């Protein structure tokens, strides 16, 4: 099974699992009447909508390049992640609205242990699936899967906090703990929503690769640039799962086009072995375009 097929199947199953978890959390809220469990269920609605958006975006991102989109459709996943962040913020505001009403008329929870058991089972499902999405999202360099997984993991953390707090509320009889926990959930997911949007916007702004990966790229180029004189103006950008790499390669002005092409092919193949989804553009220049003195043993970076 190709990586593309795997990513699309994971995105589809996120919808199914999201609907299942939503149903369980709503039952938990219906059984108890807890505003904190209501907030947890409301966040699960966001999870389902976000999973639908991620599934759509991943399908679009795998459409081959065409006349109107010569660089492909990879950035579609960032739009999904931005939408997810916005939905998270909307959910947090709706939770705060519900908290306001609950704060004015606090009430004792109905059948708390049954509701907590159901909610705990839903959270366990979310924890397992979030781990799968985060791991596969990193491997496939899928912003949509990664954002979905991180959001679900946030949901798990807040659910654990809600669970512990409601146990305390039941044991102590402090009904005020219920809306207080909902406020904590709302603030937490507001923070997470802001992070999801911020990371996605960076992708839309053509953010370069991390420092560690830049060093790796430079090392690969240097190790495979034998016959060239210098490399300069290295630039990178990330669009979804694809890493775009471009740089200038200085060669002897008397070198034939064929020999220069051999060097370029060697570098490009080596880069694609390290970064399978890399797109490499190399601009070949004569030696009078060098930015450093020519004559060192190794191929220098300027």
TrEMBL record:
The name under which this protein is listed is Protein p34
Q: Where in the cell is it found?
A: Cell membrane
Location (main, coarse) = membrane
Ranges annotated as spanning the membrane: 12-29, 35-58, 78-96, 116-135, 156-174, 180-197
Superkingdom to which the source organism belongs: Bacteria
Q: Which family does it belong to?
A: Belongs to the cation diffusion facilitator (CDF) transporter (TC 2.A.4) family.
Q: Which residues form the Cation efflux protein cytoplasmic domain?
A: 212-287
Matching SUPFAM superfamilies: Cation efflux protein cytoplasmic domain-like, Cation efflux protein transmembrane domain-like
Q: Which UniProt keywords apply?
A: Cell membrane, Membrane, Transmembrane, Transmembrane helix, Transport
């Amino acid at each position: 099974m190709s990586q593309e097929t795997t990513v699309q199947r994971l995105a589809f199953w996120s919808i199914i699992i999201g609907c299942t978890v939503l149903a369980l959390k709503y039952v938990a809220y219906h059984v108890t009447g807890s505003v904190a469990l209501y907030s947890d269920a409301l966040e699960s609605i966001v999870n389902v909508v976000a999973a639908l958006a991620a599934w759509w975006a991943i399908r679009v991102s795998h459409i081959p390049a065409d006349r109107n989109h010569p660089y492909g459709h990879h950035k579609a996943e960032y739009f999904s992640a931005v939408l997810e962040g916005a939905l998270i913020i909307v959910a947090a505001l709706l939770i705060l609205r519900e908290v306001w009403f609950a704060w004015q008329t606090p009430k004792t929870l109905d059948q708390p242990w049954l509701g907590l058991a159901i909610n705990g089972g839903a959270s366990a499902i979310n924890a397992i699936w979030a781990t799968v999405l985060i791991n596969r999202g990193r491997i496939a360099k899928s912003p949509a899967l990664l954002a979905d997984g991180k959001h679900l993991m946030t949901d798990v953390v807040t659910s654990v906090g809600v669970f512990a707090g409601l146990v305390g509320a039941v044991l102590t009889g402090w009904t005020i703990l219920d809306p207080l926990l909902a406020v904590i959930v709302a603030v937490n997911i507001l923070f997470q929503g802001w992070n999801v949007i911020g990371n996605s916007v960076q992708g839309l702004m053509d953010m370069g690769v991390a420092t560690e990966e830049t060093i790796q790229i430079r090392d690969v180029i240097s190790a495979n640039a034998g016959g060239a004189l210098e490399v300069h103006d290295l630039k990178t950008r990330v669009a979804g799962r694809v890493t775009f790499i471009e740089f200038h390669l200085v060669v002897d002005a008397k070198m034939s086009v064929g020999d220069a092409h051999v060097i370029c092919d060697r570098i490009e193949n080596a880069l694609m072995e390290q970064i399978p989804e890399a797109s490499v553009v190399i601009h070949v220049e004569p030696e009078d375009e060098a930015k450093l003195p020519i004559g060192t043993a190794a191929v220098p970076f300027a």
